[in-house]
Design goal:
Length: 280
């Protein structure tokens, strides 16, 4: 049985009305379980609980229902949140270093009820395949995080730190990442179409075959980035720095390169390139 099938089975146990679903645990219940059960809260119903500031380091929260849970300032380092429901959960300022969030949100989280991870520390976390659609990740730290195939559609990554993060195949369509730092990040084959990332840093980022069509990268720094066969069709690169960027086979059709710094770039194999007015 797949992880999503297991999630659906657990959350729909007893029928559509969830009649046999276990009652939600209180903060006191959670603290007791942490002491008695070796920090295991797997598949627990924690919906609506206020766990702000609680030490949940290393806890097993796999398949747990964390909808509407308040975890502001909590310590979730090395915690296992695989397949957990994060609907409307508040992780503001929480520590999730080296936590596992694989397939978090699953089938239960809708785009209208995203989690809040503003100022959270997710450095080194494994969020492979997590659904973070519309999530608030403003100023979050995701240094070295694993976000392969993660859903970040319309997520707010303003000011977020994603240095060395692995975002291969991730969906960042229509996301906002103004001032974010993607230095040395892996974004191969990622969908960044219509991304707004004004003034962001993509130095040495790996963007081969990424879709950046319609992206707003004004004043962004893409120095040394690998954009091999990437689509930059109609991208806004006004005033961007692409010094030494690799553009082999990149599609620059209708891209705005006015004032862009293309020093050291080999444009010979670019597709649909028009002479960039004012480019350096």
């Amino acid at each position: 049985m797949s992880i999503l099938e297991r999630i659906s089975s657990l959350f729909n146990e007893g029928g559509a009305d969830g009649a046999t679903r276990a009652p939600a645990l209180s903060r006191a219940d959670v603290e007791g379980r942490l002491r008695q059960d070796g920090r295991s809260l797997a598949a627990a119903n924690l919906s609506g609980a206020d766990l702000s500031g609680l030490d949940l380091a290393g806890a097993d929260l796999s398949l747990a229902d964390l909808s509407r849970v308040k975890l502001a300032g909590a310590n979730l380092s090395r915690a296992n949140l695989t397949g957990a429901c994060l609907q409307e959960a508040d992780f503001t300022g929480a520590t999730l270093t080296d936590a596992v969030l694989r397939d978090a949100n699953g089938a239960r989280t809708g785009a209208q009820h995203p989690p809040v991870l503003q100022d959270a520390d997710l450095s080194g976390a494994d969020a492979t395949g997590a659904d973070l659609t519309r999530a608030n990740l403003r100023n979050a730290t995701l240094t070295g995080a694993r976000l392969r195939e993660a859903g970040l559609h319309k997520a707010d990554l303003t000011g977020a730190r994603l240095e060395r993060a692995d975002l291969e195949g991730a969906n960042l369509r229509h996301a906002t990442a103004d001032g974010a730092d993607f230095t040395d990040a892996g974004l191969q084959t990622a969908d960044l179409s219509n991304l707004r990332s004004v003034g962001a840093r993509f130095g040495r980022a790996r963007l081969s075959r990424a879709n950046l069509a319609g992206a707003n990268l004004e004043r962004a720094d893409l120095s040394g980035a690998d954009l091999t066969e990437a689509s930059l069709e109609a991208a806004r690169l006004h005033g961007a720095t692409l010094r030494g960027a690799i553009l082999n086979g990149a599609d620059l059709g209708d891209a705005d390169l006015a004032g862009a710094d293309l020093d050291g770039c080999d444009l010979a194999t670019c597709h649909n390139l028009r002479t960039p007015a004012g480019a350096v």
